[in-house]
Amino acid sequence: MEQYVIKGGAPLVGEVEIGGAKNAALPILVAATMTDDTVLIENVPDVRDTNVMMQAMESIGVVIERLDRHTVKINAKNIRVQAVEDEYIKKIRASYYLIGALLGKYNEAEVALPGGCNIGSRPIDLHIKGFEALGVNVKIAHGNIVAKADHLKGGHIYLDKVSVGATINVMMAAVLAEGVTIIENAAKEPHVVDVANFLNRMGASVRGAGTDVIRIKGVAKLHGTEYAIIPDQIEAGTFMFAAAITKGDITVKNVIPKHLESISSKLLEIGCEIEESDEAVRVVASKRLKHTHVNTLPYPGFPTDMQPQITVALGLSQGTSVVTESLFENRFRYVDELTRMGSSIKVEGNVAIIDGVEKYTGASISAPDLRAGAALVLAGLAAEGFTTVDDIKYVERGYEDFDEKLRGLGAMIEKVSTEKELQKFKLKVG
Ligand code: UD1
Asked: In angstroms, rounded to a whole number, what is the distance separating the alpha carbons of residues 134 and 207?
């Protein structure tokens, strides 16, 4: 089994290039199947989730040509079936986007119920409510979501909770529905806007993405286009926190600083220095971090996908901090692992009360999910001595070349799969 082995203690210093946004790439790859024309997509991150998604798309007859590591050409004129039961697809949450896209194009879809990170119960009731408002009949049968309509017609949808997935999914189906669809209380995340921009480039008429109300005027068909995916807000934020946690100096490049505002402002609050330029943000942490309070919220609030990273940072700060997780109830499972490293954190329901400690100490730990896995790696990089992180398959779902990018910043980290390789690393770094 592969694991990361880390020797902590060195501040991370240097520049790192941020890749395309995983959570924009997933729906955009899927949305590209809504036309029979060929679509070219650039800046696709080479991570497990996007690769699994493309594999599932190929299993139903979509032709995908990889022009280079981050550029793909997609043609979906010969989709064979609308039933997607690929064994891999059950493992990723974003498989639900196939329902919206196939429904829009063919008025029917059957997709295995989604899996994904175990960060709490993750219902899809809002997606279903949205589809039903478009005149679709939705039922769950034999582990699959089965959705069917005579034809899709525009509808008025109020999302009871702000949901990225439901907003994008309903938006995709609605672009090919007859008439106008209004989505109220829509998610405003940068990737929602990116998907809307992409759909518009294919000939859709989506207005208001990035605000609470999205208005979609259905069109008869979509056409081919070329599109580059936005930079990954969470990958960038993770490296920004790597600077804070290791008392380093990191410049994240190829980012959109506006998307990082909630992250930058928390870093400033806890005592880091921030320098912004057009496409880069530099984070310098020279002093002991200060405590603060954080509440995860939909965009433009502090992202739930950055919650483990900020908790790891606050675990090393001076004083007591409180982190409230408002979106997913099971997102503090990594705290037990962090406790092995010497942190002092008490979790009560969706609140973590953190008493900052001077330092972490290396330990053998496991990644419980994607973002927590990355955050634990950062803890290991700050810790005294050696840390091993198991279950790194979670981290690889969403971070391209994570260990390599960290090494580029001076980190002592390696991916190993045998005891011999682990000992070799320990001998090498001393
Ligand atoms: C997406 C992201 C995930 C991120 C999350 C919030 C992808 C593949 N994943 O997940 O990384 O953490 O947004 O930014 O893009 N909810 C319902 N009913 C539904 C749908 C959601 O009650 O039908 C609830 C969820 O339980 C959660 C909240 O709404 O409490 C937000 O979830 P949502 O934004 O939909 O998250 P995902 O799309 O699952």
From this structure: 18
